[in-house]
Write a structure and sequence with these properties.
Aspartate Aminotransferase, domain 1; Aspartate Aminotransferase, domain 2; seven-stranded mixed beta sheet; binds 4'-deoxy-4'-aminopyridoxal-5'-phosphate; four-stranded mixed beta sheet; alpha/beta; 38% helix; 432 residues
């Protein structure tokens, strides 16, 4: 059976044979493109056939400092020679110094709970919130993804993840995501208040400052002020999932800083180490840390020396190369460049985002998301031009989330290519 991958890579080549092996031996083989990667540098990935691809994904907001930044690589190699792993119950300089640095980035007063993956850190945050408040319920948002472990799936609002693996319970409720395109007059702040009042008082409200997976969807400043106030009113904590939005991605160190929020627990992962070594944390206000007791919080691979070395190097690069400001500047340039597309092409419904977390949403003439084929067509067309981008779930949104080190020229080239492909698909009637 021919797939979109064959379409891109033809029927020969290393990437194709790796895809075949993947399908034979891996339970969840790749169905996405590019098939196989062997390396990368800066904003470029290199695939198994040696093609250089301008990456607009950052591996889903991981490679904020670019692929294989030399300073991150060097720090990891140096640390590996000394000690990669230490017994989890022994401290080491890296652990406390990264924790201090992250607390400083948040304005001070936070303590870290150490883990290896985003899902694990979300679960840790949920446990802390439940123990600290003595409550069980969590209020999340529809379509919001917070991880693939059972607890994080249940707390997130992606309907496909609920039916079989996790039952619905009165302890998990979901407010509508603040989707401006589909609001139909809904007051999202009022809807959240209704959900908060509709069952057992919640331990926490769990949200991303910008909902990445559904298609870079966010509310306005009043919405986030209302979330903050509503949490205070019902005595719930705010858990801010910054797994995808942290470390400069949105043009602030953390996404919630766009909205002036004051979260109780901030969850970080992904770009913390530029992806060099898995590392994640639930950063909680100091007074919550007394809830952290007993064996439920241990993590064998949480903040090992190798990961902490990668984190320090990544944070150094973000600061020394001024990547937070760079994301803000390039993001604004992107919004300016693309804003005319909504009027120019009937299928382009919205351009949105903050910093280098941007999305182009496409809808059919009735305002509904497209099924996969037009989005696969668009990403395939871009890939043929050496540009690698991915669509979102829930809405048909092309995600633009390149490494923050992307050059001015490459960013401009990518935006031009995207408009050219949209124009050609429109001309040929391929958006349907
Ligand atoms: N939260 C968000 C917002 C995410 O995007 C993801 C991963 N895509 C996670 C949590 C889970 O992180 P991980 O895959 O490292 O467990």
């Amino acid at each position: 059976m021919s797939t979109v991958l064959d379409n891109i890579h033809g029927t020969t080549g290393s990437a194709k044979s790796l895809a075949d092996r993947d399908r034979e031996f891996v339970a969840r083989p790749t169905t996405r493109i590019p098939v196989a990667v062997t390396g990368g540098d800066g904003a470029y990935l290199v695939d198994a056939d040696g093609r250089r691809l301008l990456d607009l994904t950052s591996g889903w907001n991981v490679a904020n400092t670019g692929w294989n930044h030399p300073r991150v690589v060097e720090a990891v190699v140096r640390q590996a020679r000394q000690m990669s792993f230490s017994p989890p119950w022994c401290t080491h300089d890296g652990r406390s110094s990264v924790a201090e640095r992250l607390s400083d980035l948040l304005g001070g007063g936070y303590k870290a709970l150490c883990g290896a993956t985003g899902s694990e850190a979300v679960e840790a945050a949920l446990k802390v919130a439940r123990r600290a408040t003595g409550r069980q319920a969590i209020v999340g948002f529809t379509e919001a993804y917070h991880g693939g472990t059972l607890g994080s799936m249940q707390a997130g609002g992606v309907p496909q993840l609920h039916a079989v693996d996790v039952p619905s319970t009165e302890f998990h409720r979901y407010a509508p995501i603040p989707d401006a395109l589909r609001s139909n007059g809904v007051d999202y702040a009022a809807a959240l208040r209704e959900v908060l009042a509709s069952g057992p008082a919640p331990a926490a409200i769990l949200l991303e400052p910008i909902f990445t997976n559904p298609g870079v969807i966010h509310g306005d400043a009043q919405f986030y002020a209302a979330v903050q106030q509503a949490a205070r009113d019902v005595g719930a904590l705010i858990i801010m999932d910054e797994v995808g939005t942290g470390f400069g991605r949105t043009g602030h160190a953390f996404g919630f800083q766009h909205w002036g929020m004051d979260p109780d627990i901030v969850v970080v992962a992904k770009a913390l180490t530029s992806g060099a070594v898995p590392m994640a944390g639930a950063l909680m206000k100091e007074d919550l840390s007394s809830a952290v007791a007993g064996p439920g919080f241990s993590s064998t691979f949480g903040w090992v020396p190798l990961a902490c070395a990668a984190a320090h190097a990544s944070l150094d690069v973000i600061s020394d190369e001024d990547l937070v400001a760079r994301a803000a500047t390039l993001g604004q340039r992107g919004l300016d460049r693309l804003s005319s597309l909504v009027a120019a092409y009937p299928s382009v419904a919205a351009i949105r985002g903050k910093g280098l977390e941007m999305g182009i949403e496409f809808t059919d003439e009735s305002g509904k998301p497209f099924s996969r084929p037009p989005m696969e067509n668009l990403t395939s067309r871009l890939l043929r031009r050496g540009i690698f981008a991915e669509p979102s779930s829930y809405t048909s949104t092309l995600l633009l989330m390149p490494p923050l080190v992307i050059s001015d020229e490459d960013w401009a080239r990518a935006l031009d290519a995207i408009e050219e492909e949209i124009a050609d698909m429109t001309r040929k009637g391929e958006f349907q």
